[in-house]
Amino acid sequence: MQAFAYSNGQLCAEEVALAEIARHFGTPCHVYSRATIEQQWHAFNSAFGRRDHLICYAVKANSNIAILNLLVRLGCGFDIVSIGELERVLRAGGDARKVVFSGVGKRTDEMQRALKAGIKCFNVESIAELERLNSVAGKVKMMAPVSIRVNPDVDAGTHPYIATGLKENKFGIPYADALPVYAMAAIMDSVKVVGIDCHIGSQITSMAPFINALERLKSLATAIEDKGIALQHIDVGGGLGICYQNETPPTPQEYVAAVLEIFSGTPCQLILEPGRSIMGNAGVLLTRVEYLKQTPHKNFAIVDAAMNDHLRPALYGAWHNILPLTEQKKNKGEVYDIVGPVCETADFLGKDRRLFLQQGDVLAICSVGAYGFCMSSTYNSRTRACEVMVDGKTMHEIRRRETLEELMTGESLIPV
Ligand code: LLP
């Protein structure tokens, strides 16, 4: 099933024309397909068969409560990186016992809240963090469940800003130090070792880096258990890429099959933390052409979405397909840079795209479901877009457009 496809010449989300959504909710507007989200989740989940496993969706990819709630209903767990994400998961009806807490900079108050909520595991990224967690848990007479995030020093072959498994990256504990850190954790009073984890990066499009990292994780897990430290789970992180343009990433089935094969000899529960591969192609961003502007060098289509609504092109030079809502013959029209109103040259959504355009047309920026809305800001005092979930023939507004009043809430003048 293709979530966003032309039907009778009209680009649709499931059974709703995107033009209808733009008319009804205005632009810019993020649109998601419920069926695609659920289909992607099932692809991961069913690939495990009867093997003990838990899918912990990476909340950072898209944290709208309605989306988290759909995943809760499927039995999903969650990978969080802040207390804000934990509160969202709980608000969405999620079970804290299925939550793993990643991130290099967990604050004391975040540790306290997560302990109180009863999360499954803290994915610890440094000795300093381990020591702090031991002391925070000790003060409330609790045992903090921990996994050590190991940095396997593997090149994920992705954009440098989203590679996390190299020795020069801030993430995880160096591979060579991991065993002594496990020995240290094992004798601490208020932490209990429950697992091991790694995450080498995002938008990974071949199996080789995963296999490399997982083989290293496996031999480390064996060495840890040989020291008499029992592991209940192995968390292999997220990172599986999607097709934005012409990439051919492994499917969830292929990826899970490799994980199952590598860890076939252990009874440990297997955990995955996918984000992009569940949400990426389940969302588009609708934007309207405000102006067409010709210069001697370029044609610009100035649209009403900008880098504050969708940061990936500006931040990573990311390529996202841009489609007109009414199907067009290929090679018609002019070559445009699709740019937003923000005062930055980096404010582009796509460059050199051939389109037949008129002012007022609506375009769909594709593959924006992950790291789209959640990375949006209010830069240039632009209110954040609305979000709509399509379910078959029905559209649900799952976040209304921010108002100017909300934008300025909490600001105040100094008295004199
Ligand atoms: N687990 C951990 C510990 C992570 O740091 C991440 C992503 C994930 C899981 C999920 O990875 P995924 O399956 O989505 O690749 N803003 C960037 C992506 C940043 C990813 C950060 N960590 C982008 O737009 O490409």
Keywords:
single chain; 416 residues; alpha/beta; Lyase, Ornithine Decarboxylase, Chain A, domain 1; TIM Barrel; 2 domains; nine-stranded mixed β-sheet; 12 helices; 21 strands; binds ligand LLP
How does the SSE layout of this entry go?
Elements: E1 4-7, E2 10-13, E3 16-17, H1 18-25, E4 29-33, H2 34-47, E5 53-58, H3 65-73, E6 77-80, H4 83-91, E7 99-101, H5 108-117, E8 121-124, H6 127-139, E9 144-151, E10 173-174, H7 175-186, E11 191-197, H8 207-226, E12 233-235, H9 252-262, E13 269-272, H10 276-279, E14 283-294, E15 299-303, H11 312-316, E16 322-324, E17 334-339, E18 348-355, E19 362-365, E20 386-391, E21 394-399, H12 404-408
Helix pairs in contact: 2-9, 5-6, 8-9
Bound molecules: ligand LLP.
Describe this structure in words.
The chain is α/β, with parallel strands linked by helices. The protein has two domains: 157 residues, Lyase, Ornithine Decarboxylase, Chain A, domain 1 (Beta Barrel), CATH 2.40.37; 243 residues, Alanine racemase (TIM Barrel), CATH 3.20.20.10. Helix content is 29%, strand content 25%. Strands 4, 14, 15, 16, 17, 18, 19, 20 and 21 form a nine-stranded mixed sheet that branches. Helix 2 packs parallel to helix 9. The model has no long low-confidence stretch (mean pLDDT 97). Ligand LLP binds next to helix 10 and helix 11.
Characterize this entry briefly.
This protein is an alpha/beta fold and 416 residues long.
